Amino acid sequence: MKLLRNFLDKIEPNFREGGKLEFFYPFYEAMDSFFYNVGETNTGQVHVRDSVDLKRNMILVMFALVPCVLFGVYNIGDQALLAGGELSGWRGGVVTSLGLTLADGALAKFVYGLTWFLPIYVVIFGTGLFWEILIGMIRKHEIYEGVFVTSLLFPLIVPPSIPLWQLCLAMSFAVVLGKEVFGGTGMNFMNPALVARAFLFFAYPAQISGDKVWTVVDGISQATPLSKFAVSTALPDISMLDAFLGRIPGCIGETSTLACLAGGVFMLAIGVASWRIIVSCLGGMVVTALFFNILYAQGVCAAPMCAVNPLWHFVLGGFAFGLVFMVTDPVTATQTTVGKWYYGGFVGVMCIVIRNLNVAYPEGMMLAILLGNIVAPLIDYFVIEANVKRRSARYA
Question: Tell me, what's the pLDDT at 36?
Fold first, then answer.
């Protein structure tokens, strides 16, 4: 690594003010800070003393996503095998070139899933990095590490069969209009990965929803369990254990509640995620689901989703993924301690309301979190105003 350090130090003057490559300094700074800590330190009295900067924070979130990535890749192949389809195209050729079939076990399933996941990730990451570098050079500011997390979150909340060109458009929309126009990482008021998915959902609904997008086998249609609940009160043809483990059709990284919880435990242990938001969101979901269960039993609500109990809501529809990785986003969530309780509860309630009353979108978690992002500043405002009035009255 000393050789790399010497090389970066040698070429640095070319990127500094007055150098031949001054325009590309944000790109150089991003590469330098990616491999090494910033050499400059604060002097004098500082009010924040923490060794974990933004970059390290983002890296920790990426580590927490590893279980979802690994299982999601495996589940692509597993669902293809369960669907009973034949492998075709170059992806199938990769598996057969290794002398394997999907029936040979986890390795074959993982390799096949990797042939679907890697192109998605490369397109999303390449698009996001392109816009980050371009805008950073134009505005002459550093390139933020938020693109790394967004580029890993976004592939996990789309189906494996999504067209790559649509991902390129969605990521461009999310980075440019969902983040950079507001000032970049730390200034956006909505989660960029969810903005990208919302763009796909409303611009290309046929490729992001329906029965044909979840299984990567030609000619196979397979609805998600939650979409089956939306039209019938009968239990889906899966067990609660399969739903918890994630052996169900769905978006790449959302299906396994177990993998999401593993990442959640890691983020709570290192202090990246807010336990207040998680607890209040989960509580809001449970209370609202039970309330609709009562309405259904009394004949007040006739929608089939109203009969779904909180356990099924928890293990289906990407609720656990949103609960752990999206609701707790420190940029778009509330900042006040009390506000975190209200914010999490609001998202949990809205998720069930959308699921139960909107048959066209039974998943619900994406829209609930985006609505929560919008009202988060308002929640903080009222919490702060209440604190000001209370203290003013105390010393009046």
Answer: 60
Q: Are residues 74 and 180 in the same domain?
A: yes
Cα 114 to Cα 129, 130, 166: the distances in Å are 21, 23, 19
Tell whether 133 and 181 lie within a shared domain. Answer: yes
| Burial (0-12, 13-18, 19+ Cβ within 10 Å), 18 | exposed
Helix (H), strand (E) counts: the chain: 17, 0
Q: Are residues 80 and 150 in the same domain?
A: yes
Domain boundary among 173, 204, 220: 220
Boundary (domain end) residue, out of 220, 241, 276? 220
**Which pLDDT value is given to residue 7?**
72
Q: Domain span at residue 317?
A: 228-396
Distance (Å, rounded) from C-alpha 309 to C-alpha 294?
10
Residue 46 lies in a domain: no
How many CA atoms, within 13 angstroms, populate the side-chain half-sphere of residue 39?
A: 5
Q: Splitting the chain (396 residues) into consecutive groups of 10 residues, what average pLDDT does each group show?
A: 72 74 66 59 48 66 94 89 71 81 83 92 94 82 78 92 93 91 81 93 81 58 70 74 89 93 94 94 97 93 88 92 93 93 97 87 88 95 93 80
Unique residue bearing structure tokens 């039974």: 362
Q: Is residue 71 part of a domain?
A: yes
Rounded to 10°, the helix 164-176/106-139 angle is 40
Q: How many domains does the chain have?
A: 3
Per-residue pLDDT, 381: 95
d(CA 13, CA 142): 17
284 & 386 share domain: yes
Burial (0-12, 13-18, 19+ Cβ within 10 Å), 285: buried
**8-state DSSP, 224:** -
What per-residue confidence (pLDDT) applies to 45? 46
User: Do 241 and 352 fall within a single domain?
Assistant: yes
Give me 69's structure tokens: 């990535």
- Same structural domain, 77 and 152: yes
